Write the C-alpha cells for this entry.
Amino acid sequence: MNYRQLGKTGLRVSEVGFGGGGIGGVWGATTDDEGQRAIHRALELGVNFFDVAPGYGGGRAETVLGAALAGHRDGVLITTKVSMRPEGFEDVPQFVRRSVEQSLRLLRTDHVDLLLIHNPISSVRGRPFEANSISPEDALEMAAAFARLREVGACRFIGFTAWRCNARALRSLVASGLFDALQTEYNLLNQSAQEPPAPGLRAADIGDAEHETHGYLAYRYRHVDQHLAIRLAAEGGMGVINIRPVLAGILTEGVDRPLEEDAAPFVRQAATLDFLRAGGTRRLSEAALRFCLMNPHVSTVVPGVKRADEIEEAVAAAAEPPLGPEELARVAELYRAGFGEPAGAEAGKHDTP
C-alpha cells in the first residue's frame, strides 16, 4: 500500500481508503459480519482511512466500523460527518455536538480524525433539497461548531463534502481557510473536479437546480458539476478525498443490485470505455481506480465497500501500472465528445416531482 499526504494536515492516508456506504447497506444488501470481515481484510492490506457517516444506514456503518476496529484504533484514521437538519439551526453548536457524541459512541472511540459537513451546499437554505440544503453561511457556522469540538479533542481536522455544492459556495468555503479537506466526485465519466464538464453533456449544477420548482432532484445517477474542486483544493492546500471512483458500480464488471432508470445513460457511456479492459486482461474497475490515482492531487480514493473481495480488488488495482498515453488520449477524446450522447443531452436526468 502506498500512502499520501492529506493536504496540510500531516496525516498520511492510504491511497485506497474504505468507503463506508457499503457496510451501511447503501450499495446493496450485506450483513454486519460481512462488513466486519471487509474491514479486517482492509487492515491486513494496509488500508488506514475509513470514511463513514450517520446517514449510512442510520448509524449502521458507524456501528459496524466501531465493532470491527475494537483493539485496532491506533494507526487508523476515521472520518465521519454531520448532516444539519432544519431544526438544528435553532442551536447549531448543540446539534453538532449531539451528532458527534452519538457517532463517537457508535464508533467506540473518543475522537475522529476528520469531521465533514455532509449537507449539499447551495445559495439558500432549503433549496433545492428542502430537508438538508444549507447556505455557505450555514456551513461556516457549522465549521465554528466543529472548531469547538476540535478544541476539546473530539476531532482533529475538519472539511466538507463538495459533491453537491454550487460554484460560489465551493469557492467561498475553500477561500475561508477553515477547512482541511474536501470530498469530491471524480471518475472516468465525470472529470469535472479536474477538467471543465464535457461539452457533449450538460452536467447538473446545484446552482441551477435551486430554481426548480419541485425542490427534489434525483442526483444519484446524474453528472453533477464538481466545479474544478480538485484544482481549488490543491490551490488551497486542502486534502482531496475522491468519492464515487467507480460511479456507484457503473464502472465495474457488473453491478450486483438492481439499477434505477436514471443509470441507463451512464451504462451506455461506460460501454464506450471497453477498450480499457485491454482485451480482457484488466477489469474496468481497475482502470477506473488507476485513472483516479494518477491525479497527483488526490489524497485517497474511497470506493464504497461491503465485502472483503471488493476492498481486495480495489487495493490490487492500485498496484497495477498506470493507464498508457494512448489510453488517456482516447479517454480525453471520449470525454470531450460526451461519450457519444446526443448534443445537449443531460446524462442521467430523471427528475422526480
In short: The two ends are 45 Å apart (CA to CA). The first helix runs from residue 32 to 44.
